[in-house]
Specification:
It is a single chain. The protein is an alpha/beta fold. The N and C termini lie far apart (about 80 Å). Helices cover about 65% and strands about 10% of the residues. The strands form two sheets. Strands 6-7-8-3-9-10 form a six-stranded mixed β-sheet, sandwiched between helices. The protein has a four-stranded antiparallel β-sheet with strand order 2-1-4-5, covered by helices on one side. It folds into two domains: about 325 residues, Up-down Bundle (ABC transporter transmembrane region fold), CATH 1.20.1560; about 240 residues, 3-Layer(aba) Sandwich (Rossmann fold), CATH 3.40.50. Strand 4 and strand 5 form a beta hairpin. Helix 2 packs antiparallel against helix 5 and helix 17 runs parallel beside helix 18. It is built from 21 helices and ten strands. Bound molecules: adenosine-5'-diphosphate. The site of adenosine-5'-diphosphate (ADP) has 12 residues, from helix 12.
Length: about 600
Amino acid sequence: MSTKFSENLTRLNLFRRAFGEYKSEIILLTFLSFLSGFLESVGISAIIPLFSFVSKDQAPSSDFISRAIEKFFFYAHLEYTLTSLLIFIILLFLVKAAALFLATYLATRTTVAFETKTRNELFSETLKADWPYLSEQKVGYLDQVLTNDIDQSSKLLTYISSSIIVLANLIAYGLLVVNISWVVALLTLILGGAVLLALKPLFNKNTEISEEKSRIYKELAHHANENVLGMKFVKSAFVEERVLEKSREYFEKIKKLNLRVSALRNATTVLIQPIGLIFVITIFAFFYKMTVFNFASFAVIVYAINKIFALIQQAQSNIHTINGQIPYLASVLKYKNEAKKHEERDLGTASFYFQNKLEFNNVIFFYKYREQNVLWDVTFSLTKGEMAGLIGPSGAGKTTVVDLILRLYSPRNGEILLDGKNITDVRMADWRKNIGYVSQDIFLLNDTIENNIKFYSDDVTKDNMAHAAKMANIYDFIESLPNKFDTVVGERGILLSGGQRQRIILARVLARHPQILVLDEATSALDDESEILIQKAIEGLRGKITVLAIAHRLSTVKASDKLIVLDEGKIIEEGSPEELLKNKDSYFFKVYNLRTT
Ligand code: ADP
């Protein structure tokens, strides 16, 4: 019992967190719903005195509402006739319709407002989150949360609003029945309550199934996204059938769950109607036995009970849907909270000012789930205008050094200084603007070359763009295309060669005038010719930009002013390529001779 109570409390809390800010809209909606319910029940009750006008042999209507209507006419100095009563009923229903229309409009408006706002917040929290958190996210999950989960959650709001309207009507019709016969009202209440209570286990089952469904949809989205991204490898390995097989498992599971949800819903709907019918017959017997049989009262009460059962049916259907929708809302809120909790921190206030050196000072770093340090006491410096190469075996920690420079991670110990100041003192926006980053992964938008070079920045002018393209050795190629800078590059740049793509990325980075350029295996995946073109481009930057290039191709770093050799997270050599080549025991000497002989 107490777990049920706390479950309900959690749900309430969930609703409050999600929809709390729409409190005034919900209050107004509730008011309008009750107004509409009240007007409807008065309108229906007015049929009783209407009948008394029509058939003179009826027993006079003695219920409260009929008398109240009569009094209303009296105090309003209106003639109480059949016509005026008819007009009164029509007016009641018109006002009721207007109230209901407003309530429904309000519900829709709140729902779409919630949907838009949540999408905005969720995407913005995601983009603002820190890299360690983002790097752990599965592809496809965000898609799913942003589209499906938010869609389902906003439906929840629609169903809550609809439930408020249903509840208001239930109360109004309940009062109508009380007005005619409190015994019947009591019986209806007991029976209605019993029906809902009996169906409760089915509602809970529905929530369980929906939780499972929300989870499977996310896994499916992840599976589809992952394999679409890697489609070339899937095809080349000829494993389409295996990928499909796994997808089919998800499809099957979803099918089974959908069938179960539908069966649960139908079972409850089918049960309620006959119960209602039996009840109406019982009421007829009850009325018939009464001394004064007022036919109009009987007709109205049967109509009302019928309506109450229809409302209960709708309520149970709403409860089903709400229970089914809750896991989606929980997932949206959980995602939002997590992303918010991992918001990228930026305590920097200073501008980017670089005159002398970028230094690593005894930097120690390890990843979250790793016990071992990835960087041990790493100390080195880059002088302004220098071109430095960072080499070392795979897994040595080179990319980690780059990620620390990009401030995607922070040192666990030690510090990184720019002209003697901790780099975290610099505003993140300034920092990232001044550090150009090119990696092996090429990220191009399915858009024109121009928009790929501008990459969301309005600061990049046409001249900037052309200049950067020239520096990146890609200008002549772009000009040779029929549409020049307006050429669309295709999904992930599929219409260009690897070398062309990489030079466009280089142009993108250079168009932002970075002061430090970090190249993480930027040429590793390219052919020799493309590498030479990029190499030339980078050499053209000598003295203008400080460059740190990671490369396993020694030709890329041979012309560097300085080489830093990293092995197992430690710097083992540092010096100019010529100096290192003099030492026959050096890593550089060994690798250089191995590659060139
Ligand atoms: P390199 O660029 O020299 O090949 P990395 O800096 O990529 O080396 O990786 C250094 C070590 O850190 C490797 O052992 C790698 O497995 C580990 N590593 C890299 N990224 C992560 C991560 N996100 N979480 C845990 N370990 C990581």
